[in-house]
Specification:
By secondary structure, the chain is α/β, with parallel strands linked by helices. The chain has two domains: 381 residues, no CATH class; 198 residues, Rossmann fold (3-Layer(aba) Sandwich), CATH 3.40.50. The chain is built from 26 helices and twelve strands. The strands form four sheets. Strands 1-3-2-4-7-9 form a six-stranded mixed sheet, sandwiched between helices. Strands 5-6 form a two-stranded antiparallel ribbon. A two-stranded antiparallel sheet has the order 8-10. Helix 20 crosses helix 26.
Length: 656
Amino acid sequence: MKRNKIIDILRGIAVTLVVLYHSFPDTVLSGYIGVDVFFVISGYVIFGTIKSRSNLSIKEQWVGFYYRRLYRIIPPLAVVAVAAALLNALFIPYSAMNKNALFTGLGGFLGVANYVIEKQTGGYFEAVGDLNMFHHMWSLSLEEQFYFVAPIIVITMLRYSVANTSLIVLSVGFLVSLGVCGVTYLMNGATYLSTPSRAWEILAGGIVFELSDSVCNFPNSRRSDKILSKSLLIFLARCLIVLILILAFVIPRANFPFPGAILPVIMASLLVFASSFLTATELVPNIKFRNCLLFLGRISYSLYLWNWVVIVFINWTIGLDGLSVKVLSICASVMLATGSWFFVEKPTIEFAKKTEPKRQWSYAVSSMILAMLVLMLSFRFSRELSISVTGRNKIDWYQPTIPVKTLIVGGINQKLSGNNLFVFGDSHAQFYRGLFSELKAEGVGVYLDGQGGRGFSLIKPLTQVGKTDLTKFLTAVASLGKPGDVVFFPALRLPRLCDYWIAYDKEAVIKGALYSDLQAHSNAVREFNNVSTTLTLKGFNVLIDGPKPVLPAPAFRCSDWFNKSNPIGRNGISIPRDELHGHRNNVMEVLKTIAKNQPNMFIWDPFKILCPDETCSAFEGEKVVFFDGDHLSNYGCQKLKESFLNELEHIFIQQE
């Protein structure tokens, strides 16, 4: 299929919208519609390429299509992925988010990144995605899933079908996919990352090709007066471009992709259709502006890949704050994409002209395997490779790994031998691992079941998933435990002042109501009371921790020379102790009320050890106490070791 310069211009416009959205998300509110323009162009080009090779046998078409597709996509993707993996290992402190990035990157090569993201975060627009260098691979995966099946159908259809059947089939597929998108949206389902809900956009491009191909095959159809007057056609095409640019500033996320994507897709489809009857010079007469858009269109794939890596790298380091940094991110992206075009994409294209498809395929697969290997190794050894203080002092920062959902039997002939500690909670249960790892030497067995967002916060009841997990945990306690053992329920019970990706308004959080939803709070207290009562009646001891300090910024994100100026740390990594007393005292009163009627329920309060002075800080001299805004570091756990052991000893010995 002959290269169409207007298609390159549209690619240039589409990638510009995406890049501007990444750097100015609060201004170019809907710049992500550039991806929808890409989907339409992709459908047009791919279906056109398939039809242009319809003289080949079915096998030659199938094999050739997948060979070419893989060879075209993988080499630039592999280079960007390797660079992203190394940047990630060197500059991004290791955290739970690294695992998300790894799985997304691997999912991108395997064509399932969109579903990996959906499973990890629940959606494309979740803030956590802004810290994942491979988040943008979702669109590549969505296309690959579509092209894994669609070409087989189209190639077979072209070989055996009668005239216009392909247009009918594409139209039916378009309507079915659009219907799936609409119904899923109305049922509050996930549509943005779903292939069945986005396939209609790619199919729109295929329909446009069929229509333009049919029109162009009419006698003298290339004469513009058979369609519209040339001047009117040029005017309408330019109006469509302006309308797409306007839409990039106004479409709300809540209505995307249904019905928000319908207008951009229609406009992009009309522009792609018009490309069969106009020249690039007619559409964009200014030579400098035209050449700029043409160049951006040529490097659009590399620019799309590199830009998000640059954005996330800046988000993790100096922070994407201020006009100069945003402009810098765009300039760096264009420079990297230009290098990628001249040194990766263009040589790859030239090499393909002189090489058999099988060799192309072998090179593509080899580069993919190598990139995936680098990806896995860089994440596996990220704490060793890191130039961050978290890597240099990893023993203080990182908790040891211990088995979960398995009873680790304590040592024999120790003071506390024969006793067990069962732990159920949210991520704070996991961040006590430094404590739990010490218990085996003291003779205490440990069973840990901790997972984010699933503890007894006493602010709201457990989710349905949390209740299911709790039932499994209590079954394990009944099976593996015995009367006198301790069941520990750690959790975050104060409102956060920050998260990994954002610093909240500290004053608003502190002055806000802790239990704003009194009904939810009442239900949560009743739920915990029922569980603790059941356990104590069976002879178990229930232990719950008092609220630990919460800090205004995550220490691991703003403790290095390259991230100290990050906006997420603008509120500092310390807070006056008195500012936490209001919410904290409310929580302690609730815990004491619950424990009052349960003689075998105990409250362990680590607050004074973690915050012995008037100011609560993430650091104690050079030692880090808090990994982020509320989770303990390994050193923080070691500070609590004596207090926690004394609490357990008190509980166990009083049972004897």
